[in-house]
Amino acid sequence: MKVLIVDDSKTARIMCKRVLPASLQQDLVEASGGEEALSVCRSQPIEVMFLDLTMPEVDGYQVLETLKNEGRQSPRVIVMSADIQPEAKDRIKKLGAVGFLPKPANPSAVEQVLREQGML
C-alpha cells in the first residue's frame, strides 16, 4: 500500500512514520506541503494519505477540497492535526477525509482508524 505523509514539519513527518504499522512503512512518500501533496497524488497512485491541516500556502483543507473537486476516489485521507475542534472534524469529513487523529498520534490510535477503514 502506497502511503503519503504530508506535513510542513520534518519532525512531524518522522513522528508519523514511527507510529505507522510496519505493513505501511514499506512504500512511503513524503510531502512538505499541500501543493507538493497534490502533485504526488496526480503523478502516482497513493492509497492512503496522512495529512496535516495547518500548513503555509496550501493547507490541508485546500488539499481535501481539491481532491474532492477533481473527483479522486483515492487516496483515503486521514487527518493528523493539533486542531481538535469539533468544527474542524466536521469540515474534514464533509471534504472527504475518512479519519481524524489528534497530534501527536500514537500507534494504537493509528491502527484503530486503519482497521475501521479496512486498511489493515
What does this structure look like?
Helix 2 runs parallel beside helix 3 (60-69). Helix content is 41%, strand content 18%. It has a 5-stranded parallel β-sheet, sandwiched between helices. The mean pLDDT is 93. Strand 4, helix 4 and strand 5 form a beta-alpha-beta unit. With 120 residues, it is of the alpha/beta class.
CATH architecture: 3-Layer(aba) Sandwich
* CATH fold annotation: Rossmann fold
Tally of separate helices? 5
Largest sheet, in brief, is: 5 strands, parallel
Portion in beta strands: 15-25%
Could you report the average pLDDT, rounded to the nearest whole number? 93
Helix content: 40-55%
Provide the succession of SSEs: EHEHEHEHEH
CATH superfamily: Response regulator
The CATH class label is Alpha Beta
The figure for the number of domains is 1
Number of strands: 5
End-to-end gap? 10 Å
Structural class computed from helices and strand pairing: alpha/beta
Give the overall silhouette.
globular
Rg, rounded, reads 13 Å
Low-confidence stretches: none
Strand arrangement, major sheet: 2-1-3-4-5
